[in-house]
Structure formats: C-alpha cells, structure tokens
Amino acid sequence: MNIVITIILTVQLLAAVAMIGLILVQHGKGADMGAAFGSGGSGSLFGASGSANFLSRTTAVLATVFFVCTLALAYFGNLRPTSSGSVLEGAAVVAPAAVPAAQTVPATPASGAAQIPAK
C-alpha cells in the first residue's frame, strides 16, 4: 500500500511542477495586442496560434491528473484498519476508577459561614 501512495504522490508532484512550468510559459490575452502593434516579438516555438491550443490542452490534462491524484491520496489517507491502536479508543474501553468513600461530595451544600476561611 505504501508503494501505491508513493507512486501517486510522485505523479502528483511531477504534474504540479510541469503545470507550473506550462503556466509560466503561456502568455496572457493582452500580450497578443502588444505584439500586433510591433512592441513585442510575435514568433514563438509553436507558431502564432498553435501555442495556445497545445499549451492550454496540456495544462488541462495535467490539472486533471493533479486532481485525480489528490482525490486518490485523500481516499488512501482515510483508509484505516478496523483495529487501530488509537489512544482515545483505548480510553473509552477502560472503566473509571472507583471513588473512595472519604472523597465523596456531600449531598447538601455548606452554608455561607462555613465557606469563610479562618485566620
């Protein structure tokens, strides 16, 4: 089970790093307007319009892989064996200790004069 969790965690980390890189490589919609007036270079690695489709689709695929890995890790993280060694579960089974007769609380409250400390 630990091997499966390690593999899922590795895939999730690789997808996250790749997604960060792809998002940083993409340019915003306002960058096209600046390139149209000659202020920026319009040439790119994938061509003028091909980069948006390729990078957007790859980012969407990596985001899907990331979310599926996150759901799988949450599922495997909540799986617990039926007999767990939890401290709180063990405390509920132990019976409370018997209170000695000398330490019992009186049934009637003490009067106000008895509560005043003596000097």
From TrEMBL:
| Function summary | Involved in protein export. Participates in an early event of protein translocation.
Question: Which named protein is this?
Answer: Protein-export membrane protein SecG
Q: Which UniProt keywords apply?
A: Cell membrane, Membrane, Protein transport, Translocation, Transmembrane, Transmembrane helix, Transport
Q: Which residues cross the membrane?
A: 54-76
Q: Does the keyword Transmembrane helix apply?
A: yes
Localisation per UniProt entry: Cell membrane
Q: Which Pfam families match?
A: SecG
Respond yes or no to whether keyword Transferase is given for this record: no
Similarity annotation: Belongs to the SecG family.
Annotated membrane topology is:
Multi-pass membrane protein
Concerning InterPro entries, the annotation shows: SecG
